[in-house]
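Q: What structure does this chain adopt?
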Amino acid sequence: MEQVGLRFDNGNEVEYERLRSPGQGAVLVIPVLDNETVFLIREYVAGMERYETSFPKGVIDPGETPERAADREIMEEIGYGANEFKLLRVLSVAPGYSDYRTHVVLATDLYRRKLPGDEPEEIEVVPWPLKDLDQLLQRADFVEARSIAALYLLQKERRI
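A:
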């Protein structure tokens, strides 16, 4: 937590608190197999106290590029690696009080490769047909804002 004092052009002075995040933030990966299927994960999220479906994601480790982190995360979470990556957008999560960023990365040309992850239980992999992406928004367990934004970016990128 950090205190930030600002003086605006109109003379008002305000003291803000903000959370500074170490490192580069996180990646959220949109893994697409053969232009037909996107892979999601279903895992327990403590903040909501339930299981939710979302895109694979994780922290960018020191020294990693967002693309390298994306590759590692999908190997750990869905058992695939990718040969091609495209950074679609960098999102801020809560810019009013945090500088934390999420890099949304499209991963294509997938191949099978599993790495051990750090999750407390096996993550459920949810293959989803690209042609049915609109139905994904109807799921009661697909509510994370970053995943919904990523879905929009995927549809825009792929003209779906």
